[in-house]
Amino acid sequence: MTTTVPDPAVPPAHGSAALGVAVLGHSFMGKAHSNAWRNVNAFYPTPRVAQKVLVGRDAGHVAEAARRYGWEESGTDWRSVLERDDVHVVDICTPGHLHADMAVAALEAGKHVLVEKPLANTVAEAERMATAAAAARTRGVHSMVGFNYRRVPALALARQLIADGRVGRVRQVRVSYLQDWLADEHAPMTWRLRRETAGSGALGDLASHAVDQVRFLLDSPVTSVSGTLTTFVPTRTGEDGPEPVTVDDAAWATLRTASGAVVGLEVSRCATGRKNALGIEVYGSLGGLRFDLERLNELHLFDATAPPDTQGSSRILVTEATHPYVGAWWPAGHVLGWDHTFTSQAAELLRSIDTGTPAAPGFEDGLEVQRVLAAVTDSAARSGATVHL
Amino acid sequence: MTTTVPDPAVPPAHGSAALGVAVLGHSFMGKAHSNAWRNVNAFYPTPRVAQKVLVGRDAGHVAEAARRYGWEESGTDWRSVLERDDVHVVDICTPGHLHADMAVAALEAGKHVLVEKPLANTVAEAERMATAAAAARTRGVHSMVGFNYRRVPALALARQLIADGRVGRVRQVRVSYLQDWLADEHAPMTWRLRRETAGSGALGDLASHAVDQVRFLLDSPVTSVSGTLTTFVPTRTGEDGPEPVTVDDAAWATLRTASGAVVGLEVSRCATGRKNALGIEVYGSLGGLRFDLERLNELHLFDATAPPDTQGSSRILVTEATHPYVGAWWPAGHVLGWDHTFTSQAAELLRSIDTGTPAAPGFEDGLEVQRVLAAVTDSAARSGATVHL
Amino acid sequence: MTTTVPDPAVPPAHGSAALGVAVLGHSFMGKAHSNAWRNVNAFYPTPRVAQKVLVGRDAGHVAEAARRYGWEESGTDWRSVLERDDVHVVDICTPGHLHADMAVAALEAGKHVLVEKPLANTVAEAERMATAAAAARTRGVHSMVGFNYRRVPALALARQLIADGRVGRVRQVRVSYLQDWLADEHAPMTWRLRRETAGSGALGDLASHAVDQVRFLLDSPVTSVSGTLTTFVPTRTGEDGPEPVTVDDAAWATLRTASGAVVGLEVSRCATGRKNALGIEVYGSLGGLRFDLERLNELHLFDATAPPDTQGSSRILVTEATHPYVGAWWPAGHVLGWDHTFTSQAAELLRSIDTGTPAAPGFEDGLEVQRVLAAVTDSAARSGATVHL
Amino acid sequence: MTTTVPDPAVPPAHGSAALGVAVLGHSFMGKAHSNAWRNVNAFYPTPRVAQKVLVGRDAGHVAEAARRYGWEESGTDWRSVLERDDVHVVDICTPGHLHADMAVAALEAGKHVLVEKPLANTVAEAERMATAAAAARTRGVHSMVGFNYRRVPALALARQLIADGRVGRVRQVRVSYLQDWLADEHAPMTWRLRRETAGSGALGDLASHAVDQVRFLLDSPVTSVSGTLTTFVPTRTGEDGPEPVTVDDAAWATLRTASGAVVGLEVSRCATGRKNALGIEVYGSLGGLRFDLERLNELHLFDATAPPDTQGSSRILVTEATHPYVGAWWPAGHVLGWDHTFTSQAAELLRSIDTGTPAAPGFEDGLEVQRVLAAVTDSAARSGATVHL
């Protein structure tokens, strides 16, 4: 015989009903975030969520997406969503120039907010959002910026190892984020290659992740920046013929942190053969770490305090139940993929809502990243001269 | 404003309602299969499914699992599930000795059936199941055995490349499946280490996958077997003290296929340091392939027909939209994990149901694997002498 | 001003003069061994050697080789070399069927002898050689078989780690030696592919190294063998047209050692894409090891006793001064190549001569390997049934 | 019977006698260069050489080294060596501040000259040397700077592939040279850490190789530089107690080449876990390349023009007879080590002497590298502002 599933043992926040979620945007990131909300309760003992509504500009497209991705409803008017009592969390996956208005309005409407990275296209927008987030926090309203790679178990483990002193004092970091979808000079013009819509190119898209990881891993702010930007393919063919590319294809910077580390940073969308290669190397006084997002279940640790005859770079398969996030998923050796990071991210926001602990990374973190990116742009405009933050 | 999500554009099979699914078993495999059914419609344009009921022996545990994993109901009586009109697919994730009775009954009740691997604990059971599946197929009822690694994009690509002649005639295959959860001699006794409940050890658990991959990749049956088995830790501590281990810890075999290839096979649960390492090497007259499940997004191809100065082993990141299964998921470089294979497997069964095409691998495939495993046992008992199939 | 280099501080054995060396054979192995004798004194504090004479069948070719490789003289009559008082070491690099006569005669003439592997083509020849070596040893005459991979620092380190219990009790070994120079079915017939000249194919050529490594690493004899052989390309084109290949292209075997380990062995000359891939995996109760000759400066160690959160497979760059043999060469990170193993091998023989310690591996080791290879052939002829040694 | 080795078939330059070689310096580099001269004739069909004299400051030490390394004589007065008629080649392996005087004097004495890298400690010294080399060249006297990594087969192949357009137009290069022998803050003070003796730290020692590789691979000069330097451990313990370190531990720079490429460069002696890791990544419009000196027999090529379904990063084992330099050595798969590069370098100088073709890299190349390094120092002093060359 069968029985109807009873009410959840884990109570939702502030009452017995599930937390209603709305996602704004239904393309790539909307699909990834929808996947997170659909699955978070299956893996994490968080408050229950209900996939209330998916919002997009084209009614037909968003309705089709909503049906596929498990949403109760779809809609085209994001402002009306903010008025609904059954929506408690607003998750913003739209292009960057829309983030600020949406996030501030949502916070003011008392909704918890998750915003895809980068937080905004400009420092001014990011400041406005951080101010709104700080105000909302005093009212128990939470916000988070979607640096999902903080939820990669290997990177969360790396942060723990650094915090525990396992590599000693960190002196030197090499971080790169390399892709190649613009390597082909015949790849067409898109809104991502115009400054007015995208803000910047590889800098905002890729370096934002890289800078956040530096801050996350070292737990120390960036204090100065020297950098340069390049556009390898200055003209691409758009719908109306050749058009100038007004954002960077690649960026380089040297950062210094308050803790005294020096960071060499390089990002590119023209790195032929690298598909989604966020690469991180950390060198400390007692050890080193290496990571590659294309092999995201692995972390390499060199322990200089190990017996000399067997010192080596140890490839840790970060799939043990004791590793960060892994216990929620599968047994050892059953590897996770890229999308699992979003589910863990959703769980983190839900935990904050449930416990009242501020979510991390918050909008302030997103703002700090934005300031570093702006400093790279400034330095590049000044021939590489160092800019202090 | 918002609109309610309309009926699906993709019609379910044989009518407008969703296909109802029941899963029998709610531990490790039940969790993985639940995940597949919860997500399959989000990624694949298959008939819509409804997660009707999750079945287990303990009412409380299964109710809790059902709630977490998204099931409408839970239950403890699998036979009553077979009587339900709203259940169209039965997915069997119970221990192996229960497979035959459940599967045959479900098929006779007109349910499409998915059975976790290995198909059964004995050849006799597998034969009974294959007979039932053949009969059911004539009535339009589909069945599949859960060799989920056929859904790893890299392995599906490998099969395509071999079929297309990209490595020439396959001469030699090295296949191993290495784990280490029994390497510790203090690991306790479990039902998996008793012949009466588990049938065999690494052989049934791991070699079943390995043998299926050989058949899948080469598209050719195994014709002879020479093998040996070993139990490295002959006694383990159970609840009542020391108890003999009556299954193998590791197995070795040399197989020959109808196509003329020779296969060296090795599986172990005592391979210290290997967590879930299904390793495959294929050597053909014009090229070679290599794969490691711990890096499941990668396939290595050596093309002996390439220009001599740049011949090499090419690491293909199997994450392009044109690669098998990948188009349903994420953009290039956004890697998949172990669990995605189950979602793709569910999609394959749904496609069969939708189109009326027999599902692969069917119970006959599961039976063939079982016969090869039995031949390894026979050969081992005869000091390694070759057994012909 | 300059001064003439004085006599060596390190005295040669048995007097002030250098040890005279003769090498028989001047093709591939003759070149490699010449390189060893030319360089051994520059790196190792052994007795001084003099490159007296290089012997070959073709007077012109061997004279040219002698000049290039640094020999004082060349010759065509190996027996006359045995009569020379200024030759103390005879190094045999000729094809296998000539080894026994040359080595026995040299030992009887009181010369220290190094013989390239495999020791001989047959067990009978190997037995005759081992008997002669034992007799010579009582007269202070040393002999060694050229299993040069014992001198790979990573493999010598692996042996040390196993002996020190760093991986616990060894249960399971995977060893393979894969090449691809016969993968092309149009590769021509050679003497290496005829049983009468070569004895066997991949078995004698490659499995001899593999079996020696098992004995070396585990320090335990092989006690039983089950195996099979295959010739993938049964006919090749010789000078007089098509001709049958009468040796194996590939071989597989399962070995058991006195220490209780099970070894899966596979060798092939048709493994397309593998150039010189001696691969070794060792799984013990407390750890594991991995090695690949194509990356011969690296050893991978998994230590199951390490802290659980950072257990991993550690890639040791075996180039530290404290690693075996490395101190003689270059600073850390300055990698060695294949040929350095021969120089270290020469140093080992010289040390034996200098100290009177029996050289290892001796002819008895070569004989034991030969017996294992013969057992593989026997088992293969008996359909894989186990042969006990 | 034996015959005395006849005169060489390959005549030495300018007569029947061998070219006499003198090496100045007998520590690490002297050992490596001695090894090259001892072996070059065994592998390359160059003019014959005679190891005439090894020069050092300590008569006893250099005599011992000369005996070990195969030199006819040793000496302590480098100037007297320049007067000898039987010395035709002078190879300078002394510390950098001695290079200029020695090299200029040797060239003026009509000796062919090889100088270890970096060419000199200052641009001024390097300019003097380049001027002398140009003058000498008009008299048929050859000179070369010892950027031995140009002789790594994988890097020479990389240059060929780039020149042949196999990766299209090179846009972006990542180059790093990472070591860790100064990672331990207790490592003692040495002359290498004082500006007056060493000139600079990681910059001159490691970045010189890195910059030369950029010039070598891209065949294009560096036109601008932005950089920074850091000393992680500012004080180390010398013989008289704590002492300031006056050179850099690590350096970062962004370079631009005349061909339009942007180069991210990073070198360090504090990169814990990296022993001798010269890493190079090249990204072009049609492909990419990767190299790591710790695996010097391998080059990774990504060919973006390959069939899309099997595009990947191809690990080329650069050991085929058709690859640069390899034909002189061993069959495919028999890997080379670090020291082989010096032997090939010696062969290149001998070829130049024999054929009258100017040697590459010449002193002008060494000077250009020196200018780039000086520009890094200048930029670092100006807060990273770009310096144009």
UniProtKB/TrEMBL annotation, chains A, B, C, D:
UniProt-listed SUPFAM superfamilies: Glyceraldehyde-3-phosphate dehydrogenase-like, C-terminal domain, NAD(P)-binding Rossmann-fold domains
Pfam families associated with the record: GFO_IDH_MocA (PF01408), GFO_IDH_MocA_C3 (PF22725)
Gfo/Idh/MocA-like oxidoreductase N-terminal domain mapped to chain residues: 20-137
InterPro entries: Gfo/Idh/MocA-like_OxRdtase_N, Gfo/Idh/MocA_oxidrdct_glycsds, GFO_IDH_MocA-like_dom, NAD(P)-bd_dom_sf
Keywords of the record: NAD, Oxidoreductase
Domain GFO/IDH/MocA-like oxidoreductase: 157-289
GO molecular-function terms, A-Z: nucleotide binding; oxidoreductase activity
Descriptive protein name: Dehydrogenase
